[in-house]
Write a structure and sequence with these properties.
The protein is about 35% helix and about 20% strand. With about 700 residues, the protein is an alpha/beta fold. It has a six-stranded mixed beta sheet, with helices on one face. A six-stranded parallel beta sheet has the order 9-8-13-14-7-15, covered by helices on one side. It binds adenosine-5'-triphosphate (ATP). This is Helicase.
Length: about 700
Amino acid sequence: MSDAEHQIAIEQQVVDKVYGRLEVMRAQATELKEEGHSRATSGPLTGLVERDAMVLRAAARMSDLDRQEEGIVFGRLDFDDGDTYRIGRLGVRDEDRQPLVVDWRAPGAAPFYRATPGEPLGVDRRRVIVCEGPKVVGLDDEVLSEKDIDGVVGEGALLRSLTRKRDEHMRDIVTTIQREQDEAIRAPAHGVTLITGGPGTGKTQVALHRAAYLLYTDRGKFSDGRVLVVGPSTVFTEYIGRVLPGLGEDNVHLRAIGELFEGVTATRRDPAHVARTKGDLRMVRVLTDLAWDTPPNAPDHLRTLKADDLAKARLEIRKRCEAAGVKPNGGRTIAAKVLSEMLDGREVPDAFLNAWWPPLTPQDVLPAQNGEWTVDDVPLLDELAEILGKPEKPKTTVPEWKLRELSSGARLAETFVVSLSLNDGWQLFAPGLATPIAVSGQFIDSNDYWAAQRWAAAIILREGHKVTGWNDGFDPYGEEGYVPVLAEPLPVAEADEPVEDVYLHVILDEAQDLSPMECRMIARHAAHASMTIVGDLGQATHALAVESWPELIQRLGKREVRTLDLPTGYRVPQVIADFAARALAPEIEPTRSFRPGGTLEIRQVDDLAAAIAQESGAVVAPDHLAASFNAIPVSQVKGLEYDRVVLVEPADIVAAEPRGMNRLYVALTRAVAELVILHTKPLPANLTR
Ligand SMILES: Nc1ncnc2c1ncn2[C@@H]1O[C@H](COP(=O)(O)OP(=O)(O)OP(=O)(O)O)[C@@H](O)[C@H]1O
């Protein structure tokens, strides 16, 4: 057996043990779930002990990680004091609670990413274990001490990772996170963290791993969709969509900017000059006026009042509402009063008010042009929701389902049990009735305790009670368990208050591109949130993009920032990066690239279509030419990457918009290996410098 084979066999033994242990935990989880059911039916409740909680939590993540082709164990650290441990996508302990694998996000795993020969942090050897599922197929060692270390095999895990076969989705980098990236991932959650860096420096990867890290460090706070990641387009969110599930986390909301207004999914952008108008802060004024305007099809007279009188009435109503801080949708009572005064005290018929002062949705005020909202409309719709205020609520009907205990009489404090396994558990309390989920159509992740806790609170609130505490069975990780709560009756009015979703951390990718109106929309979503802002000023293409980071922070209504810069590129080979840097604004430092190899070819041709037909790879063309060449429009490639890029007619890309040179820079930095430039017109002057 060669040295490498011997070392692989050693690691395989450990990996086998980990998978064996996971099987045991899986079986225990199933048992616990069944036991949980019988505990709830036979009451009184006893809390799940910590061990059970650990098993249940691991089982929930395991089902996500089962699909992970690269396996659960990926690293090993040997320390100078003789200590050794393995690092994985999930923490696993043996039957005696001794760690078999440490979760990559645990503080103990940080040296795996931070140790360097200059600063080894007590690490003698860092080993990357390459697995295909449960099978160890390779090892890469890096020795960080001066000592002789036995059985050192392989080298260059990062290089191996960079040159492996890629597919159309981004894959996580959990085995090869670099030191400066790790520092950004593990930066404190509070306040605003700004992560800057050129193209391909791993900003998006860092943002996603940071989301997973935040969930690990404070699951109680951040789980149940309390972390929002915002990307520039749906193509982009689709491209990065598998990274978090691959890390065992599916509890993060991932949205394109065109999806931030509930109920609308916009994918197309407006032309630059339209986007400039829609992105301008002056739109707030325009939208406010629209919101107070007479709705189309409103009646134009009421008894003795003619159109002119009604117009005057509207101005008066707006004045009184604004003075009282009332929004248009809350103004019906004031409207009725003003009209009645103008009619010498006569009452205004409901039918008239319904048509003349109806509750409005943002979509009523800003209907889609040509049947489609654009990405640039989305912040306007969101702004309108704020301006209009909530429509007056229809009278709440008594839900057809009832908690049996709740309807059994008034008490000061009472214990309820809400089952997470939804239908099953629900039937214990409301036999024969549909679950609240079935009734309300809300989506609740049945794997998540925190969802259940809030769900329980919402149900109990709707029943006119307030949760005052989580009872003796409190179990911080009780997936699929039961949620016993203490609750007391509430005054009825409070019970009507809706329970709102609030984000507690918002991660913004490609943040350099946000217009002032987009910033206002995000600021509303992030009103209670700490933030991670990720971007590159060199890639700013929006006509109203910021010139500096402090300007963006100010637009977002935040102040204190910690800034981390990622200096090394991992996507673009140096020859391509050097060429792309010619399109970069002179005040911005070009990125050093770590990636080896790469080719660059520039060809002037007579017939673009014929030249493209001879090419392979991703063809990227100016937007107006994209359809005719069956190419990807250049406005869609932000954040993406391809092995071989065929870039068509750079001069047209530059000429198409005010920040066309930045757009070209984005396009030039998408290639992982080969860049071919085809042009009929002269190249932009910068490129021929
Ligand atoms: N530590 C790493 N190990 C392996 N691959 C890495 C590492 N860091 C980044 N990469 C790879 O480099 C490429 C670029 O990463 P990413 O898209 O996160 O960069 P970015 O800074 O967001 O780029 P852009 O600004 O162009 O959108 C990806 O293929 C990513 O997987």
